[in-house]
Design brief:
Elements: E1 11-12, E2 21-29, H1 34-38, E3 41-53, E4 57-71, E5 78-94, E6 100-103, E7 109-115, E8 121-122, H2 124-134, H3 156-160, H4 164-176
Parallel strand pairs: 5-7
Antiparallel strand pairs: 1-8, 2-3, 3-4, 4-5, 6-7
Length: about 180
């Protein structure tokens, strides 16, 4: 993810962060974000969290709420699946980079070197990758029953059959009452 930095609806306003912490609340429609639309994200995308700001490093913790369009593995019907997950960004300011250089070391934290004069950080690609990691492997639409023959047949007579030893104990117990 080398940094072509177009400003989209899901951009963090890093230039406005002045105190030791900053509250973050962003909302956009997935239709306004081409990268998220391609990942089958639908409806509103909500980001809430905070940024802990240091002189050279900023840690951003976000809670992401959105829905994806999935195809049910049982009924093959299309449905919207809600996702709610956390994203952590570690932003390092540097005068050695122009724009943004994302680093991928496989950790749970998305790291980026950002230019000292960067005003807004577009995180759409980070969100797309996080969505792909969070989506269910085999989505099932809520309320769709299992197909016939998946579970063994239910035999009510087998349930009624009681071990004769338990039956003898039950009779003893009833005789004392």
């Amino acid at each position: 993810m080398k940094g072509s930095q177009s400003i989209g609806p899901l951009s963090l306003p890093v230039v406005r962060w002045t105190g030791p912490t900053a509250e973050i609340r962003l909302q956009a429609d997935a239709g306004d974000c081409a990268i998220l639309s391609e990942a089958d994200v639908v409806g509103p995308v909500q980001l809430e969290g905070k940024a802990d700001i240091g002189p050279k490093e900023t840690v951003v913790d976000l809670r992401v709420r959105l829905s994806t369009r999935e195809i049910c593995g049982r009924s093959l019907e299309e449905f919207e699946h809600p996702l709610d997950f956390a994203v952590r960004l570690l932003l390092r300011r540097s005068n050695e980079v122009q724009g943004v250089e994302w680093e991928d070391d496989g950790d749970e934290v998305w790291e980026a070197k950002i230019a000292d004069d960067l005003r807004e950080l577009d995180i759409e690609e980070v969100l797309r990758q996080a969505v792909e990691l969070e989506r269910p492997i085999s989505p099932v639409k809520p309320g769709v029953p299992l197909p016939e023959g998946v579970l063994p047949e239910h035999d009510p007579e087998a349930e009624k059959a009681v071990d004769p030893r338990w039956e003898a104990l039950r009779k003893l117990k009833e005789g004392r009452s």
